[in-house]
């Protein structure tokens, strides 16, 4: 498995695979070919079908800084869901064609090249990690430090700062998100409603939801967020961490950074043994993975043991199995933003269930990851970030007649 530095990346939304990945690809090509001044770019499959809503072209154009660029869309099921063909020219003279795949989480792979990242974790499953930790009598956080080195703490501190900043920007922002849906930002209203109305029985739900909405809305607006593990699922983990920090006096910022490391182990395992890409395995791979990470982090913060932490992560993923990726109009807004809030609350509930049920569990985390991946492979492509099925297909503008907000 790769370093957690590969999992947690700070970048601009709204999509790690559709925005960050393509932008990174053209940047590398631009750096290798500084004289190139014209580009023909073909977007395939999911990129072709939902690239407009994911601001793919805008991210590429911004990176190419005004160079003449022509985009083409094509469906080719033989290619990866997030594939690009990039032809470059110098003064209309063809130079070269690059084949690139955006493989999820902002990571890219050029055809004929190996991934630049290197494995740093010897253990490849949670069973192996747990066995090692128990044999050495160390915590999951100690394990991360042992593998990654002490510098990982400073790096995760930087990640946490970026997460907190996204929450603060989001809860203070108002207005309409970009795109044809004209979706109203709701995090500010959710958060400040709490300040005006004392309703303790629902305060936790509103606070956690407001934080999840805040980060997700920042992502939808193209703001700076952290992939956790993706842009589309970026609101789940920060909201759980921030709320748990505020609620419990015995938890400090240092402990939160440790929880980030623990969450990263589970996200890394999913990325390595399955997928975190909605275009590959549906939203279960994005929101489900984020929920697992947040559940593990919450359990760690509350002092649960390694078996309970594993169970929390397993419960969280198990109850997202089969979740489709069906963004309306291809925008990372409906149902994506609400799903972040629902998953954040579900993560905390999974952690609480794990606390008193771990001695009766039958399913391992590794097993549920395998099941998720196979479910994703079996899923019809209409439900894997193509905007051809589910809510994306059946949404109608007149469904908004209530406009409850």
What does this structure look like?
It is a single chain. This protein is α+β, with helices and mostly antiparallel strands. It has two domains: 14-110, D-3-phosphoglycerate dehydrogenase, domain 3 (60s Ribosomal Protein L30, Chain: A, 2-Layer Sandwich); 126-397, 2-methylcitrate dehydratase PrpD (Orthogonal Bundle). Helix content is 53%, strand content 11%. A hairpin with a 2-residue loop joins strand 4 and strand 5 (93-104). The radius of gyration is 21 Å and the shape is globular. It starts with a helix and ends in an 11-residue tail after the last helix.
Secondary structure layout:
Blueprint: H1 4-7, E1 10-12, H2 16-32, E2 38-44, H3 45-50, H4 56-64, E3 68-74, E4 83-90, E5 93-104, E6 107-110, H5 126-136, H6 140-148, H7 151-171, H8 187-196, H9 200-220, E7 224-226, H10 236-247, H11 253-273, H12 278-281, H13 287-301, H14 306-318, H15 336-357, H16 365-378, H17 391-394
Helix pairs in contact: 2-4, 7-9, 7-11, 8-9, 9-10, 9-15, 10-11, 10-13, 10-15, 11-13, 13-14, 13-15, 14-15, 14-16
Overall, the morphology is globular
Count of individual beta strands: 7
Strand order of the largest sheet: 3-2-4-5-6
Q: Pick out the low-confidence regions.
A: none
Question: What fold name goes in the CATH topology slot of the largest domain?
Answer: 2-methylcitrate dehydratase PrpD
What labels describe this entry?
about 400 residues, alpha+beta, 60s Ribosomal Protein L30, Chain: A, 2-methylcitrate dehydratase PrpD, 2 domains, five-stranded mixed sheet, two-stranded antiparallel ribbon, about 10% strand, globular
């Amino acid at each position: 498995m790769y370093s957690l530095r590969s999992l947690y990346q700070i970048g601009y939304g709204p999509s790690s695979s559709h925005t960050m990945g393509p932008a990174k690809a053209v940047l590398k090509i631009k750096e290798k070919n500084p004289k190139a001044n014209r580009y023909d770019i073909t977007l395939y499959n999911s990129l072709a079908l939902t690239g407009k809503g994911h601001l793919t072209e805008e991210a590429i154009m911004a990176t190419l800084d005004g160079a003449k660029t022509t985009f083409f869309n094509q469906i080719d099921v033989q290619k990866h869901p997030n594939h690009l063909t990039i032809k470059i020219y110098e003064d209309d003279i063809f130079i070269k064609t690059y084949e690139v795949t955006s493989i999820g989480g902002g990571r890219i792979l050029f055809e004929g090249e190996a991934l630049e990242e290197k494995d740093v974790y010897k253990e490849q499953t949670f069973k192996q990690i747990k066995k090692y930790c128990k044999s050495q009598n160390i915590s999951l956080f100690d394990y991360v430090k042992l593998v990654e080195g002490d510098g990982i703490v400073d790096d995760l501190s930087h990640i946490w700062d970026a997460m907190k900043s996204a929450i603060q920007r989001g809860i203070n922002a108002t207005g309409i998100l970009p795109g044809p849906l004209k979706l109203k930002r709701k995090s500010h209203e959710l958060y400040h409603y709490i300040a005006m109305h004392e309703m303790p029985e629902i305060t936790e739900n509103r606070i956690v939801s407001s934080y999840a909405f805040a980060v997700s809305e920042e992502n939808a607006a193209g703001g700076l967020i952290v992939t956790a593990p993706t842009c589309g699922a970026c609101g789940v983990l920060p909201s759980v961490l921030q709320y748990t920090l505020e609620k419990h006096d015995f938890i400090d910022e240092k402990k939160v950074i440790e929880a980030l490391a623990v969450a990263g182990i589970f996200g890394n395992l999913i990325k390595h043994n399955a997928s975190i890409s909605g275009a590959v395995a549906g939203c279960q791979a994005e929101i489900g993975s984020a929920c697992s990470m947040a559940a593990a982090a919450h359990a760690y913060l509350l002092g649960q043991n390694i078996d309970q932490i594993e169970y929390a992560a397993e419960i969280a993923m198990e109850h997202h199995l089969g979740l489709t990726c069906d963004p309306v109009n291809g925008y990372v807004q409906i149902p994506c933003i609400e799903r972040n809030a629902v998953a954040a609350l579900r993560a905390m509930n999974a952690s609480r269930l794990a606390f008193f049920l771990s001695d009766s569990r039958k399913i391992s985390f590794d097993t549920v990851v395998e099941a998720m991946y196979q479910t994703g492979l079996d899923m019809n492509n209409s439900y894997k970030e193509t905007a051809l099925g589910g809510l994306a297909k059946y949404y109608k503008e007149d469904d908004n007649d209530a406009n409850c907000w």
